[in-house]
Every structure is written in C-alpha cells, then in structure tokens.
Amino acid sequence: MTTHSLSGRQAQAGKYLQPSPALAEYVRRYEYFEADADHRVVQPVAVSVFPVLLFYLATRATAFEYTVRRARLVPPAIALGPCDRRVADVRYLGRLMNFVVVFEPTGFSRLFHLSPGELRNYAHDGRDVLGAWIRDLHSRLCEATRPEQMAEAVDEALLRKSSNALPKSPMQRAAASLLRYKARSNLASLASSLGLSDSSWRRHFISEIGVTPKRYLRMLRFQHAVALKRASPDRTWTEVCLDTGYYDQAHLIADFHDIGGATPSRFMRELAVVPDAIASAIYQSLADDYEVAFTGHSTNQAPQMLRSATRRGVRVPAGGL
Questions:
Q1: Which residues have C-beta within 8 Å of that of residue 198, sequence separation ≥ 6?
Q2: How many CB atoms lie within 10 A of CB 67?
Q3: Which domains does the chain have, with CATH numbers?
Q4: Distance CA 249, CA 237 (A)
Q5: Which residue pairs, CB below 8 angstroms and at least 24 apart, start in 144-148?
Q6: If you average pLDDT over residues 193-220, what whole number do you get?
Q7: Using one digit for the tens of pLDDT, what is the confidence trace for 59-70?
Q8: Whole-number Å distance between alpha carbons of 213 and 74
Q9: Averaged over 262-286, what is the pLDDT?
C-alpha cells in the first residue's frame, strides 16, 4: 500500500478490494483507507447513493448531525442508507483505519431483508440494525493485519447471509441503468421497459433502494458534479453543468444549496481539506464511471478493481485522482 505525505502533516492511503464473485450481485466493492487526520478538519457528508457498512478500526469520529442538531461519537460499526442531503459534518479524532462495505443499490435489502430507506440520512449502530454478528465481524477486522484478510472476513459473513437472500427484482436492472446513464436517463421510459406503472415503479424503488427514482437521479447528478469538479478542478462550472445534466448554473447552485448546504465553490473548498483517501472513496470512482459511460474512456487514472481470486491489492494514490 502506498503512503503519501500531504502538506507535511497527513499520511494516507486507500485500497479498493473486490468481493467474492458469489457476492458481486450484492456488494459493489470494499474500501480500506487510513489517514492521519487533523482534528480541525471537518468532512461534509452530503450525499451517497449506495448503502454502506462502515467499520472504524482505530479511532472513531464525532459527527454533528443535522437531523437531530447535535454532535455524537459515532458507533464503531455503522449502517447507513442513501443520503439525499447534507446529513452531518464529521470530525476525525486521530489515526483513521476504516473498512467500508459498499453495497449495490438493491444488495442491502436483498441480503438483510431491510429497506435502505429505513436507514436513510442517519448513521445507525450496525449492531442494533443487523445483530450481534456485526460485533463479531468488527472484532475480526480489528485483528486482521492486511486489508485482504479483512475482505475475506467480510466475505465469509456476507456469504452466510446470501444463502437466505431475496431474489433479483426489476429494480436491480433499473438501478444499474440509472447508474450507467446518470442524468441522461428517462424515468418514464425506464419504468415502461420494466412493465411497471408509475405508482408500482415508485413503490418498489423506494422499498428496495430507499428513495424515489426522481430523487435518486438528483442524488446521482449532484454526486457526479462534485466528482467531476474534484477530478478536474480546471473544468468550469458551466462545463460541469453540461456534462452532468443540469439545465444551467442556477439549477446547479440550487442543488448544491439544497443537498450540500453550501454554494458549489464553498462545498469544494470544504471537501478539499478532507483526507484524500476518504474523499476519493466517495467521489473518484463515480467520476471515472461517468467518463467511461459518456466518452468511452476515462480522463483520469482510475483505480483498478480486483478481478482475481487472490485479491491482489489495488492502490488508490492520494492526490493523484
């Protein structure tokens, strides 16, 4: 794993790992990152389209949560559904070692028989939501010495759950289409292609993915706007608008205020001081996915996902994304 020095103060590194092939329809990827975080740095948690399980393996973080308007020390393992607005400002307390399970849009509900909508916009204690096995898994992750060992431990736990997973539904194909084509998707046409009425489409989408299709598309557009601007700071906001489906800059600014709680420029300044390994895990892969979908190639050095059974580690270079 490559370690980089940032401003002489923060050493950080990240790694993406691919789950077992048997889990590919449920789990998008695993992420491991570590960083020496300045306690003065605050990370805006504004939007996430994927349900996640996040395990703190060293120091934890405090979060000021806008829903309850107070700060708390987050649990050692959190379950978080889709976030469609700025839900928290997170402050890291020291050395970070985090392992994240990023689920496919319908993967969480299929594995755990629980709608991500019930976890929307709030970091729940994973033990309360999913049971005591989360505590055991957290212990195994803390004992592991390499990210690959952590991935194997999570594989074992989730493979046991997959034996009782719900079958695939049309929402899985719908979510895959929305992720691929982003703001260029036509929701009515997509619903029609699935043979669903508008009301049935909305009901199933909310149950299995956690938000309405329209809101999901808006979250994707915002997340891609941030990802593209972060990956290419010289790209103008006008170019970002055109590339991500906003009507104009006024439309983009309105979304940043509503979802990010700040102007576009201010939000990017807030994000710029977040340890790069953390910010990259949220935004970089989406930027690359976007470029591939619309141009046929990536304009950036994309972190390569693992495809071998041996799980060779793939480095995410800090500052190079």
A1: 188, 191
A2: 11
A3: 4-166 (2.60.120.10), 170-295 (1.10.10.60)
A4: 7
A5: 147/1, 147/15, 147/17, 147/30, 147/32, 147/99, 147/313, 148/17, 148/311, 148/313
A6: 91
A7: 888 899 988 889
A8: 30
A9: 75
First to last CA, the chain: 16
pLDDT over 90 (residue 30) = yes
In the chain, % of residues over pLDDT 70 = 79
Tokens at 55, concatenated: 């395990």
Residue pointed to by tokens 């789950």: 19
Angstrom CA distances, 54 to 111, 134, 168, 242, 294, stand at 16, 11, 25, 34, 31
Burial class of 113 by CB neighbour count within 10 A (0 to 12, 13 to 18, 19+): exposed
Q: Encode burial over 226-236: b for 16+ CB neighbours within 10 A, e otherwise.
A: bbbbbbbeeee
- Report yes or no: 42 and 89 within 8 Å, Cβ to Cβ: yes
Residue that is written with structure tokens 């999901």 in the block = 216
Mean pLDDT of 117-125: 93
The H or E element spanning position 178 is helix 170-181
Q: Please tell me which residue, 152 or 14, carries the higher pLDDT value.
A: 152
The token pair at 320 is: 């190079």
Q: Is a pLDDT exceeding 60 seen at residue 270?
A: yes
Using DSSP, state whether 63 is helix, strand or coil: strand
Name the DSSP letter for residue 48: B
Question: What is the per-residue pLDDT for 32?
Answer: 92
